[in-house]
Structures are given as C-alpha cells and as structure tokens.
Amino acid sequence: MEAFGLSEAQQLISFAQQDHLGEPAFWEVTRDADACAGGLSKCADITPTPYRFSKMFAAFTR
C-alpha cells in the first residue's frame, strides 16, 4: 500500500501555492491526531507528533 507522507503533503502544498489552488486538503484527521507509529489502518504511521499534517495544511495561503 502506498502512503501519503509528510514529503508528499509538502509537495501538494507547494503545487497548490504555485498554481493558486483554493484549498488543498487531506481526508483523515483522526489518524493525524493519533500520529502513532503503528499500522496505517489505525494511524498516520509517522513520527509521533499529533496533527503534523493539519499544521502543514493550516499554514497554506494562496
């Protein structure tokens, strides 16, 4: 299974800023809140820092 990680999120945000998109987003805030290092079915599978994706997307400006 391919995962959407932090580097992909940054690429999406950069693309959205460059092309003046209105609202880049992701679909699973509950996994972002948990941010555990377990399986993808239960959490984001990234270094345990809750809301890392949310904070990245919140900083988006066009």
Radius of gyration equals 12 Å
Structural class computed from helices and strand pairing = mainly alpha
Instruction: Please count the helical segments.
Output: 3
Strand content: under 5%
* End-to-end distance: 31 Å
Helix content class:
40-55%
How many DSSP-defined strands? 0
Indicate the low-confidence ranges by residue numbers: none
Tell me the overall shape: elongated
Mean pLDDT, to the nearest integer, reads 76
Tell me about the biggest sheet?
none
Please provide the ordered H/E string of secondary-structure elements.
Answer: HHH
Secondary structure layout:
Layout: H1 6-18, H2 29-34, H3 52-58
Helix pairs in contact: 1-3
How would you briefly describe this protein structure?
This protein is mostly helical.
Written description of the protein model:
With 62 residues, the chain is an all-alpha fold. The protein has a domain at 27-62. Helices cover 42% and strands 0% of the residues. The chain has three helices and no strands. The chain has helices at residues 6-18, 29-34, 52-58. α1 (6-18) runs parallel beside α3. The chain is elongated, with a radius of gyration of 12 Å. The mean pLDDT is 76.
